[in-house]
Inverse folding.
């Protein structure tokens, strides 16, 4: 039985909070940026139900392995919202996803994104996707699809969150990982651009406790606090692939570790083989000013800081000692600073921790492999 009241006002989808026209406008604003990531291997255009990538080139592989990764950018979005700057978040998303793929030696092929929001603001959505597209171009990866979902009643009008996924390919006999690591290998640390996209719950808590406004100019940063902590994540994919392809560094890299949540030691331990350990010397690099500032403002214990933030090293490579200089030189030619920060030794030869700041990390992220010792102290740190 139809119980509809003919006198009641009609309720449309827009009345419920979902504006499909705004979604269409956002797509129009982002189309050019997305299309710029498409090479001849991408079929079809924007708006299809599925992105299509021609993978005929995989026929030339002896045994191609697909590598996949998915991630988001966490509470860094709160900073972007407060500053009303949204394109850098897209670059963060790409870095968090594709740099996990390149860790195994894989080249990313295609990426998709998902944006959930309380209300579609076309210009804001387009800014986010424009940043994703720029990051994909830097990584040599096609942005082949995405979804924007409006969730009124579940999210506030200004709220949004982003996630992404990507797939890449690596030849099976070129797969990087713990099984390639040898005693005597060196640990090369590559410069981070800043905080990247991890630990922002801690960072925001510290800033909130200090009641420091994001538009405050910080002399040590040479810019405002907001500009410093919104600095996008460095994308290492193209740099790593260049090292892997360069004849001067052929076979040099045995394993890689993307320094994300958990800090350097925990992530490096994930790629250490059983019976091996990496002894990392803090004295070989100085973290950027943002790390010491967060430490001072929040009186954050150093070990807690190191277990949360990247401390200025965003990617780590385990490399044959004979090819370490060549690897650093290739990275330098591409404008990426790197240096030897440690070496791989037998786990049984690790010295006992000599101070409260020296500790051994093992079994991180559920991986039962080797271990990592952080030793010494950074220049300029008490």
């Amino acid at each position: 039985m139809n119980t509809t009241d003919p006198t009641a006002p009609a309720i449309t989808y827009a009345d419920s909070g979902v504006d499909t026209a705004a979604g269409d406008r956002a797509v129009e604003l982002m189309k050019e940026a997305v299309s710029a990531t498409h090479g001849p291997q991408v079929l079809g255009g924007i708006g299809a139900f599925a992105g299509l990538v021609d993978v005929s080139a995989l026929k030339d592989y002896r045994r191609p392995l697909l590598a996949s990764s998915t991630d988001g950018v966490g509470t860094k979005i709160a900073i972007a919202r407060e500053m009303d700057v949204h394109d850098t978040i897209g670059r963060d998303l790409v870095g968090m996803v594709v740099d996990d793929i390149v860790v195994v030696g894989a080249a990313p092929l295609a990426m998709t994104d998902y944006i959930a929001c309380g209300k579609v603001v076309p210009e804001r959505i387009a800014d986010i996707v424009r940043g994703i597209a720029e990051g994909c171009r830097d990584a040599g990866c096609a942005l082949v699809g995405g979804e924007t979902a409006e969730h009124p009643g579940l999210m506030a009008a200004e709220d949004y969150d982003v996630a992404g996924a990507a797939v890449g390919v690596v030849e099976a006999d070129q797969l990087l990982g713990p099984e390639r690591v040898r005693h005597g290998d060196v640990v090369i640390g590559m410069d981070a651009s800043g905080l990247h996209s991890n630990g922002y719950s801690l960072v925001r808590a510290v800033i909130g406790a200090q009641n420091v406004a994001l538009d405050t100019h910080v002399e040590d940063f040479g810019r405002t606090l907001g500009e410093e902590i919104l600095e996008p994540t460095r994308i290492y994919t193209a740099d790593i692939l260049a090292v892997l392809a360069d004849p001067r560094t052929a076979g040099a890299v045995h394993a890689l570790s993307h320094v994300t949540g958990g800090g350097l030691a925990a992530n490096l331990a994930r790629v250490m083989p059983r019976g091996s350990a990496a002894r990392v010397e803090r004295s070989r690099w100085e973290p950027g000013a943002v790390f010491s500032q967060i430490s001072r403002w929040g009186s954050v214990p150093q070990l807690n800081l190191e277990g949360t933030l990247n401390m200025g090293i965003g990617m780590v490579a385990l490399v044959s000692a004979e090819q370490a200089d060549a690897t650093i030189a290739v990275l330098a030619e591409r404008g990426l600073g790197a240096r030897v920060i440690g070496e791989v030794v037998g786990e049984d030869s690790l010295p006992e921790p000599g101070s409260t700041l020296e500790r051994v990390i093992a079994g991180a992220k559920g991986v039962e492999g080797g271990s990592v010792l952080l030793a010494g102290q950074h220049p300029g740190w008490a």
